[in-house]
Amino acid sequence: MKKILLLLGATVTAFVFNNSEVSAQSKSSAPDSALLYEITGKDLKKPSYLFGTIHIICEKDMFPAAKLDSYFNKTDQLLLEFDMDDPVVMQKAAQMSLLPDGGSVSDLVTAEEYQKIDALFKNYLGFSFDLLKNYKPLTSTTLLMTSPKVLGCQPAVVYDNYLSQKAAAAKKPVIGLETVEEQIAVMDSIPVQKQIDGLKKTAADPQVAAKAFKQLYEIYLKQDSDELFKVAAGQLKMEEYSQEIMLDKRNSNWISAIETNISAKPSFIAVGGGHLGGENGVVNLLRAKGYKLKPIKF
After folding, report:
1. In this structure, how many other beta carbons lie within 10 angstroms of the beta carbon of residue 230?
2. Is residue 251 a contact partner of residue 75, using CB atoms and an 8 Å limit?
3. CA distance 76 to 5
4. Distance (Å, rounded) from C-alpha 82 to C-alpha 8?
5. pLDDT of 24
6. Bridge partners of 40?
7. Which of 53-57, 224-228, 237-241 has the lowest mean pLDDT?
8. From CA 161, how far away is CA 44, in angstroms rounded?
9. For the chain, where are the E strands, in sequence order?
């Protein structure tokens, strides 16, 4: 269950990428597209840094720790989508990820469908779906699609947790850009039945969803936040989910908190890579506010 708690912070963003085949990718993107940006200008006394994560990544594929740490060490606080360093917050996230009224996935699918789902989780994760049947299907699907078997590696690292541990070791505060309630509300914008349909679809052909995640993974390693956004937007459209709710509105809501914090002290900001690119992405929104964002490649 500990891994479930760690993944809750990644659930909404990861689901955007995991639940359908990746759409056709553009052959070019802005030359300044990256996953790490230095934020200066607008009377900031010291630079802050914006980092796009994939939340969970093979340890061997992590960007060089020495370089990432060199920028992290220049800052005084860590900003995440929400505070994964607070056990009370994490427990609350776990509680809110449960189906309402003691509900169970077993009540929402046929016995045959449940057997397929159970077999899938035993195959990919090594345990029965019975452990997860009371959780909203989105949480279970995300856990499955970020499993070591799909990633093709062991161990895997949750970037948010990695950064939280570094902040704790350096005694730097961790600040959430949104509350647990706000993040779960994004998950709940997807009807439970649609989440069930996604889980059944994955159980019927897990390789389709796995292929989508692996394609995204390759794009991420190329450090192209604009392409990550295009893939995310394409998948949202294919699955008939709201880009405004899943990405745009959240990005807009974060800007005020980011401005307040980077004005007070240099900050290291880590959010899902799909939130950086696009017209309404965090990079463009901060530039529109008058900040200079310089891309940094690893």
Report:
1. 21
2. no
3. 26
4. 10
5. 39
6. 292
7. 237-241
8. 28
9. 36-40, 48-53, 56-58, 77-80, 156-158, 174-176, 267-272, 292-296
DSSP SS3 for 240: coil
* Residue the block writes with tokens 């936040």: 225
Tokens at 24, concatenated: 């056709």
Half-sphere exposure of 237 (CA within 13 A, CB side): 9
Cis peptide before 155 (omega within 30 of 0): yes
Map out the domains of the chain as residue ranges.
2-17+31-296
Cα gap 75→46, rounded to integer Å: 9
Q: Are strands 36-40 and 56-58 parallel, antiparallel or unpaired?
A: unpaired
Q: Could you give the CA distance from residue 76 to residue 274 in angstroms, rounded to a whole number?
A: 25
The model's pTM is: 0.87
> How many CB atoms are located within 10 Å of the residue 217 CB?
18
Q: Residue 61 is encoded by which pair of tokens?
A: 């594929």
Instruction: Point out which residues pair with 294 in neighbouring strands.
Output: 38
DSSP assignment of 42-63 equals: TT-SS-EEEEEE-SEEEGGGSP
Residue type, 291: Y
Question: Residue 132 class from Cβ within 10 Å (0-12 exposed, 13-18 middle, 19+ buried)?
Answer: buried
* Helix/strand number for the chain, H first, E second: 15, 8
d(CA 163, CA 107): 39
CA distances from 18 to 32, 33, 152, 168 (A): 26, 22, 15, 30
Per the CB < 8 A criterion, the answer to whether 19 and 239 are in contact is: yes
CB contact at 8 A, 92 and 188 = no
Phi, psi of 288 (to 5 degrees): -65, -25
What integer pLDDT is reported at residue 177 of this predicted model?
A: 96
Beta bridge partners of 56: 158
| pLDDT tens track for 76-119 | 999 999 887 778 888 888 889 999 999 999 999 999 999 999 99
